[in-house]
Every structure is written in C-alpha cells, then in structure tokens.
Specification:
The complex is a heterodimer of chains A (316) and B (285). With 316 residues, chain A is of the alpha/beta class. Helix content of chain A is 35%, strand content 25%. Chain A has eleven helices and 13 strands. In chain A, strand 11 and strand 12 form a beta hairpin. Chain B has 285 residues and is mostly helical. In chain B, 73% of the residues lie in helices and 0% in strands. Classes of the chains: A alpha/beta (316), B mainly alpha (285). The complex binds adenosine-5'-triphosphate and magnesium ion.
C-alpha cells in the first residue's frame, strides 16, 4: 500500500505537483495517467525519496521510504530505462544492486531469465536497444521479489510482443497480491491493464476511480442518425418521447435507445436514413476531455491556408 | 533476444496454502530477507568499481606513469650521477606527481558518472541512505587506490634503488611508499568529494587539475613581484611541493614534514567530504 498525502513539489517558479492525495492498493494494477509534464515522474521520484517534497508525505506500508532497511525487497521501481551505467554489463548492474540489499546473487540469473536477457547478460548495456534497456530496468525492479512495484512508462520502446508481455506481467504480479503502480499517457493501454485509475493534470488530481467506473461514466454509447429528412425525423423521434441531440455535420445522436427501435420507427414513418450506427465514445476521448484544461504542451497543427504563414505571405 | 519466460513460471514455486494466505495480507516473497548493512553497500560498490573500464584505464595509466618514468630515470642515470647523501628513491617523485592525475580522474568519475548516467537514481532507490552510499564509495575507492599506489611506489622505489644504488633509510623508504600512497589516496578522496559536490565529471576533473597545478604556476609568476610572502606560501603548500616532502626534497626552507602534509590533505579532504555528505542529503537527484 502506498499512501500519498498532500504531496507538492515546486521547482523554482513551477509547481510540478500540487497537493496530491491518493492511495495505491495491493492486489490490483493502478494506472497513473496524465499528459506530458503532468508530474507523474516527479510524483514517482518523491515516492522513492529521490526528490524531496515541498509539502506533504509518502508512506509505504506506513513507513517512509528512507526507513526501509532493504528497500529492493519491498519496492521495485523502473523509473527510466537509461538509469544505469552503460559501461557495466547487465549481469554486473543487477549484481551490484542485489548486493546492496543482501539479495542472493542467484536472483540475478533468475530475473535475467524472466525478462529474457540471459543471452546478453555479459554484454555492456551501452549497446542495448531501448526495449532491452527497459527489460533490464524491469529485471532490476523484480530483483528483490518486492510486494510493491512501480513502473514509469514501462511499455516505452517495447515491441508489440514486449508490450503484451509487460501487460501480462503486471496483471500476474497484481494477482499475486502485490501493489502495482504504473504510469502511462495512453488511456487505451491502461484500459487493458489497470483496475484502478489515478489521473493528474498540471500536478493536480483530476480523477481517482476504478477502471470499471471510469468506463461506465465515460464510455457513452449512443446511436448516430443521418437523414435527408432531418426535420421530420426529429419530430417523429420527439413524438415518440426520445431525446435527440443535434451533432455536427447534419447528424443526430440518440442516447439509450437501441438502433433497431430507431430504424423501425423511421420505417413506420417512411423516412429515408443515410446512416444508423451504434457508437461508443472512446476512453481516449474521455481522457482527453478530462485533461483538456490541463495540457501544458500543446502541439500546433500546421496552419491551414488563409491563416498564419499563408495570409502573411499573401500580403507581401 | 530470447523469448521472455512467463512471470507465472517465475513465481510458480510459491505453494498453494501460502498463496491463499497472501490473498489477505499482500504478497510475501520466498526470497530470504535480511537487513542491509554497510557491508552490503561495500560489496555493491566493489562490484561497481571493478566492473567499469575507467577503473582499469585510470589505474593502468597511473602504473605506467609511475613505473615508466621511474624506469626511464633508472636507465638514463648511472650510479655516478647520484649526488652523495641523496637516495635514489627520491627520483620516483616525478612519476607519482603525474600519476596523481588519473587517480583524481577516477576519484571524480566514481561518483560523477553515476549522476551523468542516471545510475544514481537506481543506486539510491536500492539504498536510500545517501550517507551509506557515499561512505561505501569513499572507502572502496580509497582502499583500492592506496593498495594500487603502494604496489606502484614500492616497485618503482625498488627499481631505482637497485639500479642506482645509494643509501636509504627505513624512514625514507616508508615515506616514499606507504606515506605517498596514503597521500595519493587522500587526494583521490578529495577529488571524489569534489565530484560529489559538482556532479559533473569534466568540471570536477578540471577543477582538480587546477587545484594541483595553479598554486605552483601562480607562485612562478609571482617571482617577479614583491609579494614574497604569498609566493613562499604557494610554493610551500602547493600539491607538488607537499608531495616532494615525502621524498625529503622541498622547494623552500622550513617546509612542513610528511605528517604535516598528510594532516593538511586529510583535513581538506575531511572538510570537503563532510560538505558533500551534508549537501547531498538536501538535494534532489
Ligand atoms: N528537476 C526538475 N527541475 C525543474 N523542473 C522540473 C524538474 N523535473 C520536472 N520538472 C517539471 O515538472 C513538470 C512535471 O514533470 P514530470 O517529468 O513529472 O512530468 P510527467 O508527467 O512525467 O511527464 P511525461 O509524461 O512527459 O513523462 C514538468 O513541467 C517539468 O518541466
Ligand atoms: Mg515522465
């Protein structure tokens, strides 16, 4: 169990983490979501006592991280795949970590096998690909066979097979009763792995909910209708007591009524339909809406003609 | 890359009743646990220092400088060149003075490379006591440097004495080997402290080279000026002349002796290492 209480972190002028309070419970995978720069990595660094909080505290099973006597057997963390000395072999990297916590050296071979790096154990990690580095970082997190696992964007740089492996790994770790806390930008990825969600934006807590609840409230299912006789269709639906929302592009959207019923209703009134399609709002859209107000680093799309460069160019 | 085995297989050894019990209390590892101590940190740092090439390279350069220059001197001079009353052992000085450079480099790198690569985050996650990490690094590095320097100075002293002859006292022999090695280890430790404070390899190494060479260079420039007091001070306490003390050569009259030189370097190192311990606990990594 990880408890975060009133956690804040200020870097100069910038408030990177702003009064976060939440808990990460054992036995489930907790997804930690937020757009770029939301403060996920900063929060994780503070959980591990690498960065000192400006305010608030983190407790791991009631203890401060610094008070853990053999932390690797308690908490395994993957922060950054490149948080290692590239000149050292994978084996020696893990060996020095194991030794610092009094973990038997035999565990090194075991975790290397788990992540599939046995063949390159004696190679210097400098030459590793991003995905291999990620696997080595995961091996380090598993070294002490800890009850709490923390992964900062673990699927970064992994191939589809690797992503699949990581998903199953996290689920099975949680199924064994461990606490699994994993950050990501990708709602779709989390929907597949996480049981619980903590969403932050600009350092503030936006949501702390179970995945099932999040899906229920955010994945609105509705039926989209398009007809050349839109006005009549509207009236018909209205008379039938069905609420209609006019969406863009001349389409109508209806919540909570099956598409079959709507089709039959239109047929009865001899209305032509160009579209009758059940829709499901994606979780990704829901996530983007949730964090819309707190996205710091917006990309700007190429200016359309008549705007930006185009218009100034014309005046010359 | 090989196909990763499934994690289920990894933890499959947990027995069924144990697993039931875990369902209520969270996961309990089958890996035997015990509290980590400074001894574990020392073992870890020993693995780290022996598993990177810069250790090998820096010590190789140091050995080459100390032994190479000593041997060249032994070959270039003959027994007749030795002034009466002088010991050939003292000629090892030049090699050791240059050999300090790679030792300082390694001292800096031992800590700053962890910051440069990001390894420090992994290290401190494994051992949250920053004092223990820095302490273990300092002990391992200093001990290793002392031993390697002792081997180098003993060998070069023996070569010089054997080929150039002359008489030597037990005291001079002791200072030129054990004393010098302790002094070199202290300078290395000082470099490690500077590396821990600056966290930047190139910056810290440059600073250390300046620390060794600048006072002497400055003193030479001051020769033309009336500031004799300052010049004498710089000459006396610059690292090269402090090192010379161990060989019984000294640039100015009344310069401090071997114990004093060790005391000065030890004090300086203690202050900077103390500062590093103090500062690192207050910084983010
Ligand atoms: N050491 C630091 N010094 C100054 N500012 C920092 C530092 N670390 C993080 N920040 C700032 O704090 C904010 C949060 O950064 P953080 O890395 O925690 O975000 P994140 O959620 O992990 O983002 P991403 O998804 O891109 O990894 C950012 O705006 C970043 O610029
Ligand atoms: Mg991040």
């Amino acid at each position: 169990m990880i408890e975060v209480a009133g956690l804040s972190k200020r870097y100069g002028q910038k408030l990177a983490v702003d009064d976060l309070t939440f808990q990460v419970r054992p036995g489930i995978v907790t997804g930690f979501l937020g757009p770029n720069g939301a403060g996920k990595s900063t929060t994780m660094r503070m959980m591990l006592d690498l960065d000192r909080p400006t305010a608030g505290a983190v407790r791991i099973d009631g203890k401060r991280y610094t008070d853990l006597k053999d932390p690797l057997t308690y908490v395994g963390a993957l922060l950054d795949a490149k948080a290692l000395h590239g000149g050292r072999s994978a084996y020696n990297h893990l060996l020095c970590l194991a030794q610092s916590n009094g973990i038997p050296a035999s565990r090194v071979g075991e975790v290397l096998d788990t992540v599939g790096l046995t063949a390159v154990a004696k190679k210097r990690s400098k030459g590793f690909s991003l995905g291999m580095g990620q696997r080595l970082g995961i091996a380090g997190a598993l070294l002490g066979d800890p009850q709490i696992l923390m992964f900062d964007e673990p699927v970064n740089g992994l191939d589809p097979e690797g992503i699949h492996w990581i998903r199953n790994l996290m689920k099975s770790l949680a199924a064994q009763g461990r606490t699994v806390f994993v950050s990501s930008h990708l709602m779709s990825e989390m929907a597949l792995t996480a049981d619980h969600l903590v969403v932050i934006g600009q350092g503030r807590l936006l949501a702390d909910t179970s995945m099932a609840d999040f899906i229920r409230t955010n994945s609105r299912s509705y039926v989209r209708l398009r007809s050349p006789q839109q006005e009549r269709l509207r009236d018909v639906l209205h008379q039938a007591g069905i609420t209609v929302v006019t969406a863009g592009n001349g389409t109508l959207e209806v919540d909570g009524v099956a598409s079959e019923q709507l089709g039959e209703l239109a047929a009865q009134h001899q209305l032509v339909l160009h579209e009758l399609s059940p829709q499901q709002a994606s979780l990704e859209e829901a996530f983007m809406q949730l964090t819309a107000g707190s996205v710091e680093y917006h990309a700007h799309s190429e200016p359309a003609s008549g705007q930006g460069w185009g218009s100034t160019g014309g005046e010359n | 890359m090989t196909t990763p085995s499934t994690p289920q297989a990894q933890y499959g050894s947990v027995s069924a009743p144990e697993q039931q019990w875990q369902a209520q209390t969270g996961y309990v590892s089958p890996v035997p646990l015990r509290r980590a101590t400074l001894k574990d940190a020392l073992a870890s740092e020993w693995t780290k220092i022996r598993s990177v090439r810069s250790t090998l390279w820096n010590f190789a350069v140091m050995l080459a400088l100390v032994l190479g220059i000593g041997t060249l001197i032994a070959l270039a001079l003959s027994r007749r060149d030795m002034p009466p009353g002088e010991s050939a052992v003292a000629l090892g000085f030049v090699g050791v003075l240059l050999g300090i450079m790679p030792v300082m480099t390694l001292g800096v790198m031992t800590i700053s490379s962890e910051y440069g690569t990001g390894m420090i985050r992994t290290t401190l996650t494994a051992c949250p006591s920053r004092a223990r990490v820095l302490g273990a690094k300092a002990i391992v590095f200093a001990a290793l440097t002392f031993v390697v320097t002792l081997v180098a100075t003993t060998l070069v002293s023996a070569v010089l004495l054997f080929s150039l002859g002359g008489r030597t006292t037990g005291a001079l022999w002791g200072w030129a080997t054990v004393g010098v090695s302790a002094y070199v280890a202290l300078i290395g430790l000082f470099a490690l402290a500077v590396g821990a404070l600056l966290r930047h390899s190139a910056g810290a190494i440059t600073l250390m080279i300046g620390f060794v060479l600048l006072p002497l260079v400055l003193a030479l420039f001051l020769a033309a000026s009336p500031m004799h007091g300052l010049q004498d001070f710089l000459l006396e306490y610059s690292i090269p002349s402090q090192l010379g003390v161990f060989y019984g050569t000294s640039m100015v009259q009344g310069a401090p002796g071997g114990w004093e030189a060790l005391g000065i370097m030890g004090g300086l190192t203690a202050v900077f290492l103390g500062l590093a311990f103090f500062v690192q606990d207050r910084r983010d990594v």
